Amino acid sequence: MAGVAITAVDEGTRKSYSAVTTAEGYYSIQFIKAGTYAITASIKGFETVKKTGIVVATNQVKRR
Description:
Structural class: mainly beta
Order of helices and strands: EEEE
Mean pLDDT: 93
Distance between the termini: 15 Å
Number of domains: 1
Radius of gyration: 12 Å
Number of helices: 0
Number of strands: 4
Largest sheet: 4 strands, antiparallel
Strand content: 35-45%
């Protein structure tokens, strides 16, 4: 789904990163620090989804 607001919050430092999904439903967050994240996806008219405990390592591409 296009236009979904994605927010990744580092569970340790509380630093946040944002992105928006493409027409194909993909998103990319460049230069995110290694850590454990809570990821939230939201768009008007739909329920917000939140996933916690997402571990991101250095130089890693994460797909879920």
